[in-house]
Amino acid sequence: xxxxxxxxxxxxxxxxxxxxxxxxxxxxxxxxxxxxxxxxxxxxxxxxxxxxxxxxxxxxxxxxxxxxxxxxxxxxxxxxxxxxxxxxxxxxxxxxxxxxxxxxxxxxxxxxxxxxxxxxxxxxxxxx
Length: 128
Fold this sequence. Notes:
Shape: globular
Structural class: mainly alpha
Largest sheet: 2 strands, antiparallel
Number of helices: 6
Strand order of the largest sheet: 1-2
Distance between the termini: 41 Å
């Protein structure tokens, strides 16, 4: 039984080391959000851009523009109040691959506006 546990641990360590689960979650999220006509070709194009970015040392390509970010905010703001909760905000950042699950974000108690959401997404994409 220990051999199985050891193999699972090795697999988990490998996935964590190479951030495979974050990559797959990001690819899936972008795919479902954009819904391209040819999903396989779209994913291949994203992976190729990532490969080039890594090989050349340029910034990680971010695949969502301002209209996509606004649309994502609108989907979370189902009551149309112009704000989202801190929990929604953090989940959106995780979904976009801009925040890790264990990253601690400070909740100042205020609702998150579209401007604040866009600003934070833009800031974090510059850091990648």
